[in-house]
Amino acid sequence: MKLVLLSGGSGKRLWPLSNDARSKQFLKVLENDRGDMESMVQRVWGQIKGAGLSDSAVIATSKVQVEILQNQLGGVPIIVEPERRDTFPAIALAASYLYSQGVSLDETVCILPVDPYVDDRFFDRIRDLDGALHNSGAKIALMGVNPTYPSSKYGYIVPEAGGADTDYKRVGRFTEKPSEDQAERLIEQGALWNCGVFAFKLSYMMDKLLREGLPMEYEDLLARYATLEKISFDYAVVEKESHIAVIPYDGYWKDLGTWNTLTENMGLKQIGKGAISEDSSNTHLINELDIPVTIIGIPDAIVAVSPDGILVSDKAASPRVKDMVEAGQRPMYEERRWGWYRVLDYSKFDNGTEVLTKRIGLGAGKNLGYRKHMHRADTWTIITGEGILVKEGSITPVKAGDVVTIQPGTYHCLKAFRDMEYIEVQTGAVVQEEDFEEMFSSWKDIERHCVTSGAEPARAGRKVL
Protein backbone atom coordinates (compact mmCIF):
# COMPACT_ATOMS: atom_id res chain seq x y z
CA MET A 1 0.00 0.00 0.00
CA LYS A 2 1.14 3.54 -0.82
CA LEU A 3 -0.06 6.51 1.23
CA VAL A 4 -0.57 9.97 -0.28
CA LEU A 5 -1.13 12.71 2.28
CA LEU A 6 -2.79 15.85 0.93
CA SER A 7 -1.50 19.09 2.42
CA GLY A 8 -3.34 22.24 1.39
CA GLY A 9 -5.54 24.96 2.81
CA SER A 10 -5.56 28.73 2.57
CA GLY A 11 -5.15 29.39 6.29
CA LYS A 12 -8.27 31.47 6.99
CA ARG A 13 -10.11 29.45 9.64
CA LEU A 14 -7.34 29.73 12.25
CA TRP A 15 -6.29 33.29 11.45
CA PRO A 16 -4.18 35.11 12.59
CA LEU A 17 -1.81 32.22 13.33
CA SER A 18 -2.57 30.59 9.99
CA ASN A 19 -2.04 32.28 6.64
CA ASP A 20 -1.45 31.36 2.98
CA ALA A 21 2.04 30.09 3.81
CA ARG A 22 1.27 28.49 7.20
CA SER A 23 -2.10 26.77 7.19
CA LYS A 24 -3.58 25.00 10.21
CA GLN A 25 -1.56 21.77 9.99
CA PHE A 26 1.67 23.69 10.68
CA LEU A 27 0.64 25.49 13.89
CA LYS A 28 2.68 24.21 16.85
CA VAL A 29 -0.10 24.26 19.43
CA LEU A 30 -0.41 20.58 20.42
CA GLU A 31 1.50 19.16 23.37
CA ASN A 32 3.13 15.77 22.79
CA ASP A 33 4.05 13.05 25.32
CA ARG A 34 7.42 14.72 26.00
CA GLY A 35 5.77 18.04 26.85
CA ASP A 36 7.02 19.68 23.64
CA MET A 37 4.81 21.68 21.30
CA GLU A 38 4.22 20.17 17.89
CA SER A 39 2.03 20.79 14.85
CA MET A 40 -0.72 18.59 13.44
CA VAL A 41 1.49 17.46 10.57
CA GLN A 42 4.32 16.57 12.96
CA ARG A 43 1.89 14.58 15.09
CA VAL A 44 0.45 12.70 12.12
CA TRP A 45 3.85 11.95 10.59
CA GLY A 46 4.99 10.59 13.94
CA GLN A 47 1.95 8.31 14.06
CA ILE A 48 2.60 7.14 10.50
CA LYS A 49 6.19 6.29 11.45
CA GLY A 50 4.93 4.47 14.54
CA ALA A 51 2.61 2.39 12.35
CA GLY A 52 5.51 1.46 10.06
CA LEU A 53 3.99 3.27 7.07
CA SER A 54 6.39 6.19 6.56
CA ASP A 55 8.51 4.37 3.95
CA SER A 56 5.36 4.02 1.83
CA ALA A 57 4.10 7.58 2.34
CA VAL A 58 4.48 10.74 0.26
CA ILE A 59 3.06 14.24 0.83
CA ALA A 60 1.40 16.14 -2.01
CA THR A 61 1.42 19.91 -1.51
CA SER A 62 1.64 23.22 -3.32
CA LYS A 63 5.02 24.86 -3.79
CA VAL A 64 4.28 27.51 -1.14
CA GLN A 65 4.24 24.81 1.57
CA VAL A 66 7.34 22.85 0.58
CA GLU A 67 9.80 24.72 2.78
CA ILE A 68 7.65 24.65 5.91
CA LEU A 69 7.18 20.89 5.45
CA GLN A 70 10.95 20.49 5.17
CA ASN A 71 11.41 22.68 8.24
CA GLN A 72 9.02 20.63 10.38
CA LEU A 73 9.52 17.09 9.02
CA GLY A 74 12.98 17.11 7.47
CA GLY A 75 13.65 15.19 4.27
CA VAL A 76 10.25 13.62 3.69
CA PRO A 77 9.22 12.69 0.13
CA ILE A 78 7.15 15.51 -1.38
CA ILE A 79 5.19 15.83 -4.62
CA VAL A 80 5.04 19.52 -5.50
CA GLU A 81 1.96 20.93 -7.21
CA PRO A 82 3.00 23.99 -9.28
CA GLU A 83 -0.19 25.70 -8.13
CA ARG A 84 -3.35 24.92 -6.16
CA ARG A 85 -5.95 23.30 -8.39
CA ASP A 86 -8.12 21.29 -5.93
CA THR A 87 -7.95 17.61 -4.98
CA PHE A 88 -8.54 15.83 -8.31
CA PRO A 89 -5.51 17.39 -10.04
CA ALA A 90 -3.42 16.85 -6.89
CA ILE A 91 -4.35 13.17 -6.67
CA ALA A 92 -3.88 12.69 -10.42
CA LEU A 93 -0.38 14.18 -10.15
CA ALA A 94 0.45 11.94 -7.17
CA ALA A 95 -0.79 8.84 -9.02
CA SER A 96 1.26 9.70 -12.10
CA TYR A 97 4.30 10.19 -9.85
CA LEU A 98 3.87 6.71 -8.34
CA TYR A 99 3.37 5.21 -11.80
CA SER A 100 6.50 6.93 -13.13
CA GLN A 101 8.43 5.60 -10.12
CA GLY A 102 7.62 2.05 -11.21
CA VAL A 103 4.89 1.30 -8.66
CA SER A 104 2.75 -1.64 -9.80
CA LEU A 105 -0.65 -0.85 -11.32
CA ASP A 106 -2.10 -3.41 -8.88
CA GLU A 107 -0.81 -1.45 -5.87
CA THR A 108 -3.40 0.04 -3.51
CA VAL A 109 -3.09 3.82 -3.10
CA CYS A 110 -4.62 5.39 0.00
CA ILE A 111 -5.42 9.12 0.07
CA LEU A 112 -5.82 10.94 3.37
CA PRO A 113 -5.58 14.49 4.74
CA VAL A 114 -2.35 15.46 6.45
CA ASP A 115 -4.02 16.77 9.61
CA PRO A 116 -6.54 14.35 11.20
CA TYR A 117 -6.53 14.36 15.01
CA VAL A 118 -6.83 10.65 15.73
CA ASP A 119 -5.51 7.87 17.93
CA ASP A 120 -2.89 5.45 16.63
CA ARG A 121 -5.47 2.79 15.72
CA PHE A 122 -6.61 5.03 12.87
CA PHE A 123 -3.49 4.16 10.88
CA ASP A 124 -3.78 0.45 11.63
CA ARG A 125 -7.33 0.60 10.28
CA ILE A 126 -6.09 2.24 7.06
CA ARG A 127 -4.33 -1.03 6.22
CA ASP A 128 -7.74 -2.72 6.05
CA LEU A 129 -8.73 -0.62 3.01
CA ASP A 130 -6.57 -2.91 0.85
CA GLY A 131 -8.60 -5.97 1.89
CA ALA A 132 -11.88 -4.10 1.46
CA LEU A 133 -10.99 -3.26 -2.15
CA HIS A 134 -10.00 -6.85 -2.90
CA ASN A 135 -12.90 -8.59 -1.13
CA SER A 136 -15.68 -6.23 -2.25
CA GLY A 137 -14.61 -5.81 -5.87
CA ALA A 138 -15.31 -2.08 -5.43
CA LYS A 139 -13.45 0.54 -7.44
CA ILE A 140 -13.01 2.79 -4.41
CA ALA A 141 -12.97 1.94 -0.69
CA LEU A 142 -13.65 4.63 1.92
CA MET A 143 -13.06 4.75 5.65
CA GLY A 144 -15.88 6.32 7.64
CA VAL A 145 -15.94 7.34 11.31
CA ASN A 146 -18.65 6.05 13.62
CA PRO A 147 -20.41 9.29 14.70
CA THR A 148 -20.45 10.21 18.36
CA TYR A 149 -23.17 12.85 17.99
CA PRO A 150 -25.44 14.23 15.21
CA SER A 151 -23.11 16.87 13.77
CA SER A 152 -24.17 19.26 11.02
CA LYS A 153 -20.52 20.12 10.25
CA TYR A 154 -19.52 16.88 8.51
CA GLY A 155 -20.48 14.95 5.42
CA TYR A 156 -22.04 11.50 5.85
CA ILE A 157 -21.53 8.18 4.07
CA VAL A 158 -24.77 6.20 4.03
CA PRO A 159 -24.28 2.43 3.46
CA GLU A 160 -26.85 0.33 1.64
CA ALA A 161 -29.27 -1.46 3.95
CA GLY A 162 -28.80 -5.20 4.55
CA GLY A 163 -26.03 -7.04 2.80
CA ALA A 164 -23.64 -9.70 4.01
CA ASP A 165 -22.09 -9.56 7.46
CA THR A 166 -18.64 -8.36 6.39
CA ASP A 167 -16.12 -5.78 7.56
CA TYR A 168 -17.21 -3.54 4.70
CA LYS A 169 -20.51 -2.22 3.37
CA ARG A 170 -21.52 -1.02 -0.05
CA VAL A 171 -22.10 2.75 -0.17
CA GLY A 172 -25.66 3.78 -0.98
CA ARG A 173 -25.31 7.55 -1.07
CA PHE A 174 -23.60 10.61 0.39
CA THR A 175 -25.18 13.46 2.35
CA GLU A 176 -23.24 16.70 2.79
CA LYS A 177 -23.62 18.63 6.07
CA PRO A 178 -27.25 17.85 6.99
CA SER A 179 -29.21 19.54 9.75
CA GLU A 180 -28.82 18.02 13.21
CA ASP A 181 -32.27 16.40 12.94
CA GLN A 182 -31.35 14.89 9.56
CA ALA A 183 -27.99 13.78 10.96
CA GLU A 184 -29.73 11.97 13.81
CA ARG A 185 -31.86 10.03 11.32
CA LEU A 186 -28.80 9.25 9.19
CA ILE A 187 -26.98 7.84 12.21
CA GLU A 188 -29.97 5.58 12.90
CA GLN A 189 -29.47 4.24 9.35
CA GLY A 190 -25.83 3.41 10.09
CA ALA A 191 -24.31 6.46 8.39
CA LEU A 192 -20.66 7.33 9.02
CA TRP A 193 -18.79 10.62 9.07
CA ASN A 194 -16.77 11.14 5.90
CA CYS A 195 -13.20 11.73 7.13
CA GLY A 196 -11.68 12.11 3.66
CA VAL A 197 -9.83 8.77 3.63
CA PHE A 198 -10.19 6.49 0.60
CA ALA A 199 -8.25 4.00 -1.48
CA PHE A 200 -8.11 2.69 -5.05
CA LYS A 201 -5.84 0.60 -7.20
CA LEU A 202 -3.25 2.62 -9.10
CA SER A 203 -4.63 1.17 -12.35
CA TYR A 204 -8.00 2.79 -11.58
CA MET A 205 -6.53 6.29 -11.56
CA MET A 206 -4.35 5.62 -14.60
CA ASP A 207 -7.47 4.56 -16.53
CA LYS A 208 -9.12 7.82 -15.46
CA LEU A 209 -6.21 9.84 -16.87
CA LEU A 210 -6.34 7.98 -20.17
CA ARG A 211 -10.09 8.53 -20.52
CA GLU A 212 -9.61 12.24 -19.79
CA GLY A 213 -6.89 12.45 -22.44
CA LEU A 214 -4.27 13.26 -19.80
CA PRO A 215 -0.68 11.91 -19.79
CA MET A 216 0.25 9.08 -17.42
CA GLU A 217 3.88 10.10 -17.08
CA TYR A 218 4.63 12.46 -14.20
CA GLU A 219 6.78 15.01 -16.06
CA ASP A 220 4.24 15.25 -18.88
CA LEU A 221 1.32 15.76 -16.50
CA LEU A 222 3.36 18.29 -14.52
CA ALA A 223 3.91 20.32 -17.69
CA ARG A 224 0.14 20.42 -18.30
CA TYR A 225 -0.87 20.96 -14.68
CA ALA A 226 -1.92 24.59 -15.12
CA THR A 227 -4.49 23.52 -17.73
CA LEU A 228 -6.26 20.97 -15.51
CA GLU A 229 -9.76 21.81 -14.30
CA LYS A 230 -10.03 22.99 -10.70
CA ILE A 231 -12.32 20.29 -9.34
CA SER A 232 -12.47 18.10 -6.25
CA PHE A 233 -11.91 14.34 -6.42
CA ASP A 234 -15.39 13.88 -4.92
CA TYR A 235 -17.09 15.72 -7.79
CA ALA A 236 -14.82 14.43 -10.54
CA VAL A 237 -14.70 10.77 -9.51
CA VAL A 238 -16.47 9.60 -6.35
CA GLU A 239 -19.96 10.90 -7.16
CA LYS A 240 -19.79 9.24 -10.61
CA GLU A 241 -18.65 5.84 -9.32
CA SER A 242 -21.38 3.23 -8.85
CA HIS A 243 -19.49 0.64 -6.80
CA ILE A 244 -17.90 2.02 -3.63
CA ALA A 245 -17.24 0.18 -0.37
CA VAL A 246 -16.79 1.65 3.11
CA ILE A 247 -15.23 0.33 6.30
CA PRO A 248 -16.04 1.81 9.73
CA TYR A 249 -13.53 3.25 12.18
CA ASP A 250 -14.73 3.39 15.77
CA GLY A 251 -11.80 5.22 17.40
CA TYR A 252 -11.19 8.86 18.20
CA TRP A 253 -11.31 11.32 15.29
CA LYS A 254 -11.70 15.06 15.17
CA ASP A 255 -11.29 17.81 12.60
CA LEU A 256 -9.36 20.60 14.34
CA GLY A 257 -10.38 23.12 11.72
CA THR A 258 -11.77 25.90 13.92
CA TRP A 259 -10.57 27.64 17.05
CA ASN A 260 -13.26 26.11 19.24
CA THR A 261 -12.40 22.52 18.20
CA LEU A 262 -8.65 23.12 18.28
CA THR A 263 -8.62 24.53 21.81
CA GLU A 264 -10.56 21.51 23.07
CA ASN A 265 -7.50 19.37 22.25
CA MET A 266 -4.61 21.73 23.01
CA GLY A 267 -3.95 20.64 26.58
CA LEU A 268 -2.61 24.11 27.51
CA LYS A 269 -4.77 27.17 28.20
CA GLN A 270 -1.95 29.57 27.41
CA ILE A 271 0.95 29.62 24.95
CA GLY A 272 3.21 32.69 25.00
CA LYS A 273 3.44 35.78 27.18
CA GLY A 274 0.39 36.95 29.14
CA ALA A 275 -2.06 36.12 31.90
CA ILE A 276 -5.65 34.85 32.12
CA SER A 277 -7.79 35.73 35.15
CA GLU A 278 -9.51 32.92 37.08
CA ASP A 279 -12.97 34.19 36.08
CA SER A 280 -12.04 33.84 32.37
CA SER A 281 -13.08 30.19 32.39
CA ASN A 282 -12.61 28.11 29.22
CA THR A 283 -10.63 30.94 27.60
CA HIS A 284 -7.43 30.24 25.67
CA LEU A 285 -4.55 32.57 24.80
CA ILE A 286 -2.00 31.92 22.05
CA ASN A 287 0.52 34.73 21.75
CA GLU A 288 3.40 34.65 19.25
CA LEU A 289 4.60 38.20 19.99
CA ASP A 290 7.02 39.36 22.68
CA ILE A 291 4.47 41.68 24.32
CA PRO A 292 2.28 40.33 27.17
CA VAL A 293 -1.48 39.98 26.71
CA THR A 294 -3.76 40.05 29.77
CA ILE A 295 -7.33 38.70 29.71
CA ILE A 296 -9.73 39.64 32.52
CA GLY A 297 -13.32 38.50 32.99
CA ILE A 298 -13.86 37.08 29.49
CA PRO A 299 -15.02 33.42 29.53
CA ASP A 300 -15.36 31.02 26.58
CA ALA A 301 -13.08 33.06 24.33
CA ILE A 302 -10.07 32.62 22.08
CA VAL A 303 -7.41 35.33 21.96
CA ALA A 304 -4.83 34.67 19.24
CA VAL A 305 -1.95 37.09 18.59
CA SER A 306 0.58 36.84 15.78
CA PRO A 307 2.50 39.13 13.40
CA ASP A 308 -0.48 38.79 11.03
CA GLY A 309 -3.01 40.26 13.45
CA ILE A 310 -5.02 39.85 16.65
CA LEU A 311 -8.21 37.83 17.09
CA VAL A 312 -10.52 38.20 20.07
CA SER A 313 -13.60 36.03 19.68
CA ASP A 314 -16.22 34.05 21.50
CA LYS A 315 -15.33 30.43 20.76
CA ALA A 316 -18.73 29.57 19.33
CA ALA A 317 -18.49 32.50 16.91
CA SER A 318 -14.83 31.93 15.95
CA PRO A 319 -15.57 30.01 12.69
CA ARG A 320 -16.82 33.32 11.26
CA VAL A 321 -13.25 34.61 11.12
CA LYS A 322 -12.77 33.08 7.65
CA ASP A 323 -15.45 35.45 6.30
CA MET A 324 -13.79 38.53 7.79
CA VAL A 325 -10.15 37.99 6.83
CA GLU A 326 -9.01 40.05 3.88
CA ALA A 327 -8.03 37.89 0.91
CA GLY A 328 -4.48 38.09 -0.40
CA GLN A 329 -3.01 39.50 2.82
CA ARG A 330 0.77 39.13 2.88
CA PRO A 331 1.97 36.51 5.42
CA MET A 332 3.91 38.25 8.19
CA TYR A 333 5.49 35.05 9.50
CA GLU A 334 6.80 32.04 7.58
CA GLU A 335 8.83 28.94 8.29
CA ARG A 336 11.39 27.91 5.68
CA ARG A 337 13.62 24.86 5.25
CA TRP A 338 16.47 26.86 6.82
CA GLY A 339 14.56 28.55 9.66
CA TRP A 340 11.96 31.31 9.86
CA TYR A 341 11.32 35.00 9.32
CA ARG A 342 8.99 37.61 10.80
CA VAL A 343 8.07 40.88 9.09
CA LEU A 344 8.66 43.80 11.44
CA ASP A 345 7.79 46.79 9.26
CA TYR A 346 6.90 47.87 5.73
CA SER A 347 6.99 51.40 4.31
CA LYS A 348 6.55 52.92 0.86
CA PHE A 349 7.84 56.45 0.29
CA ASP A 350 6.70 59.21 -2.10
CA ASN A 351 9.58 58.54 -4.50
CA GLY A 352 8.38 54.93 -4.94
CA THR A 353 11.06 53.33 -2.75
CA GLU A 354 9.85 50.41 -0.65
CA VAL A 355 11.48 49.31 2.61
CA LEU A 356 10.71 45.96 4.24
CA THR A 357 12.27 44.95 7.57
CA LYS A 358 12.44 41.35 8.79
CA ARG A 359 13.83 39.45 11.74
CA ILE A 360 15.27 36.18 10.43
CA GLY A 361 16.30 32.98 12.21
CA LEU A 362 18.82 30.66 10.50
CA GLY A 363 19.28 27.26 12.13
CA ALA A 364 22.71 25.84 12.96
CA GLY A 365 24.12 24.01 9.96
CA LYS A 366 21.50 25.47 7.63
CA ASN A 367 22.07 27.82 4.70
CA LEU A 368 20.18 30.22 2.48
CA GLY A 369 20.16 29.56 -1.26
CA TYR A 370 22.93 31.06 -3.40
CA ARG A 371 20.89 33.71 -5.19
CA LYS A 372 20.70 37.29 -6.39
CA HIS A 373 17.96 39.92 -6.24
CA MET A 374 17.24 42.06 -9.26
CA HIS A 375 15.33 45.00 -7.78
CA ARG A 376 16.43 45.43 -4.18
CA ALA A 377 19.42 45.84 -1.87
CA ASP A 378 19.63 43.99 1.46
CA THR A 379 21.33 45.14 4.64
CA TRP A 380 21.87 42.50 7.35
CA THR A 381 22.69 43.24 10.99
CA ILE A 382 23.76 40.03 12.76
CA ILE A 383 22.18 39.84 16.25
CA THR A 384 23.30 36.42 17.51
CA GLY A 385 25.28 33.44 16.30
CA GLU A 386 28.08 33.08 13.79
CA GLY A 387 28.57 31.69 10.31
CA ILE A 388 29.96 32.49 6.89
CA LEU A 389 28.90 34.79 4.08
CA VAL A 390 29.49 33.82 0.46
CA LYS A 391 29.32 36.83 -1.85
CA GLU A 392 30.29 36.56 -5.53
CA GLY A 393 33.07 34.10 -4.74
CA SER A 394 34.29 36.09 -1.73
CA ILE A 395 34.08 34.25 1.59
CA THR A 396 33.85 36.08 4.92
CA PRO A 397 33.19 34.96 8.50
CA VAL A 398 30.30 36.80 10.18
CA LYS A 399 29.25 37.07 13.82
CA ALA A 400 27.01 39.09 16.13
CA GLY A 401 27.46 42.81 15.55
CA ASP A 402 28.52 42.54 11.90
CA VAL A 403 26.67 44.50 9.21
CA VAL A 404 26.51 43.19 5.64
CA THR A 405 25.21 44.97 2.53
CA ILE A 406 24.09 43.07 -0.58
CA GLN A 407 23.63 45.14 -3.74
CA PRO A 408 21.13 44.19 -6.51
CA GLY A 409 22.53 41.61 -8.91
CA THR A 410 25.00 40.18 -6.37
CA TYR A 411 24.97 36.42 -5.80
CA HIS A 412 25.14 35.65 -2.09
CA CYS A 413 24.24 33.21 0.65
CA LEU A 414 24.68 32.74 4.38
CA LYS A 415 25.40 29.61 6.42
CA ALA A 416 25.10 29.39 10.21
CA PHE A 417 27.56 27.44 12.36
CA ARG A 418 25.46 28.25 15.44
CA ASP A 419 21.80 29.35 15.53
CA MET A 420 21.81 32.81 14.02
CA GLU A 421 19.38 35.71 14.08
CA TYR A 422 19.71 38.88 12.06
CA ILE A 423 17.72 41.91 10.97
CA GLU A 424 17.27 42.26 7.21
CA VAL A 425 16.29 45.60 5.67
CA GLN A 426 15.19 45.30 2.03
CA THR A 427 15.25 48.53 0.00
CA GLY A 428 14.27 49.07 -3.61
CA ALA A 429 11.61 49.86 -6.16
CA VAL A 430 10.23 46.35 -5.63
CA VAL A 431 10.49 44.24 -2.45
CA GLN A 432 8.85 40.90 -3.15
CA GLU A 433 9.61 37.32 -2.11
CA GLU A 434 9.68 36.35 -5.80
CA ASP A 435 12.47 38.83 -6.63
CA PHE A 436 15.39 36.38 -6.92
CA GLU A 437 17.29 34.12 -9.26
CA GLU A 438 18.79 31.13 -7.46
CA MET A 439 21.89 29.34 -8.71
CA PHE A 440 22.16 26.67 -5.98
CA SER A 441 20.21 25.63 -2.88
CA SER A 442 22.31 22.76 -1.48
CA TRP A 443 25.45 23.58 0.47
CA LYS A 444 27.45 20.91 -1.39
CA ASP A 445 26.75 22.68 -4.69
CA ILE A 446 27.64 26.05 -3.16
CA GLU A 447 30.90 24.61 -1.78
CA ARG A 448 31.77 23.16 -5.17
CA HIS A 449 31.11 26.53 -6.81
CA CYS A 450 33.33 28.27 -4.23
CA VAL A 451 36.18 25.83 -4.91
CA THR A 452 36.05 26.49 -8.64
CA SER A 453 36.06 30.21 -7.81
CA GLY A 454 39.32 29.77 -5.89
CA ALA A 455 37.92 29.67 -2.34
CA GLU A 456 38.75 27.03 0.28
CA PRO A 457 35.81 24.65 1.08
CA ALA A 458 34.05 24.84 4.45
CA ARG A 459 34.88 22.49 7.30
CA ALA A 460 32.80 21.86 10.40
CA GLY A 461 33.66 24.17 13.25
CA ARG A 462 35.62 26.65 11.15
CA LYS A 463 34.68 30.28 10.74
CA VAL A 464 35.96 30.42 7.18
CA LEU A 465 35.27 28.03 4.32
TrEMBL record:
It comes from Saccharibacillus brassicae. This is Mannose-1-phosphate guanylyltransferase. Keywords: Nucleotidyltransferase, Transferase. GO terms for molecular function: mannose-1-phosphate guanylyltransferase (GTP) activity. GO terms for biological process: GDP-mannose biosynthetic process; polysaccharide metabolic process. Residues 4-264 form the Nucleotidyl transferase domain. The keyword Transport does not apply. InterPro entries: Man6P_isomerase-2_C, Mannose-6P_isomerase_type2, NTP_transferase_dom, Nucleotide-diphossugar_trans, RmlC-like_jellyroll, RmlC_Cupin_sf. Residues 336-437 form the Mannose-6-phosphate isomerase type II C-terminal domain.
